[in-house]
Amino acid sequence: MITLALSKGRIFDETMPLLKAAGIEVLEDPEKSRKLILPTNQPDVRVVLVRASDVPTYVQYGGADLGVTGLDTLIEHGTDGLYQPLDLQIAKCRMSVAVRSDFDYAAMVKQGARLKVATKYTTIARDFFATKGVHVDLVKLYGSMELAPLTGLADAIVDLVSTGNTLKANHLVEVERIMDISSRLVVNQAALKMKQAPIRRIIDAFSAALAK
């Protein structure tokens, strides 16, 4: 049995055409089904639905043989025990720094001010500001980042940005782009040795679909 870990939403939806190219079709709609393990048209392939942040953990510890996860999640989790054969070029967005529109970020950085930064992505934020030589105090949040600068909890946020509309609606502006984000295929290294032929077949099918 090959187990593929996916998260609901954009990653799931954008992975479906790639699975189809590999001859795999999920037989139930995750939005309508209460099941967390979904069958496919291939009796030896199943999909498990997990939280986006848990995908690398499931793959690393063998709860799934392979999975699809954002680069942001991968960096925060770490890549031990994970083979990353493909950038799937799906669920694209960017990781950025944003502040209130009336906050002079450039001047603060120039002055060497210590910034309070709210983010879920502490590893990415810490590394980014360290390379710039900017001193920051990180505040870890899980909910709506946009609230942090508006309530005075933080001077800036580090968050994923897709269209930028949410920032605009909350009177925030993007001041620095840290990196582009897309989703990666990750594979459990032990599973790749034990189930090499079926896993390699899926990797090759994904690769061929991306090349089209």
Question: What would you note in describing this structure?
Answer:
This protein is an alpha/beta fold and 212 residues long. The protein has helices at 10-21, 55-60, 71-77, 105-111, 122-132, 147-151, 165-169, 189-194, 196-211, and strands at residues 2-6, 37-39, 45-49, 66-70, 82-87, 93-100, 115-119, 136-140, 156-161, 172-181, 183-188. The protein has a 6-stranded mixed β-sheet with strand order 2-3-1-4-11-5. Helix 5 links the parallel strand 7 and strand 8 (136-140). The chain is elongated, with a radius of gyration of 19 Å.
Q: Fraction of residues in helices?
A: 25-40%
Summarize model confidence as the mean pLDDT.
95
- The secondary-structure element order is EHEEHEHEEHEHEHEHEEHH
Helix segment tally: 9
What portion of the residues fall into strands of 2 or more residues? 25-35%
- How large is the radius of gyration? 19 Å
Distance between the termini: 28 Å
The overall strand count is: 11
Decide which structural class fits the backbone: alpha/beta
Largest sheet: 6 strands, mixed
Low-confidence stretches: none
Largest sheet, order of strands side by side? 2-3-1-4-11-5
Principal-axes geometry comes out as elongated
Q: In summary, what is this structure?
A:
The protein has 212 residues and is of the alpha/beta class. The protein has 9 helices and 11 strands.
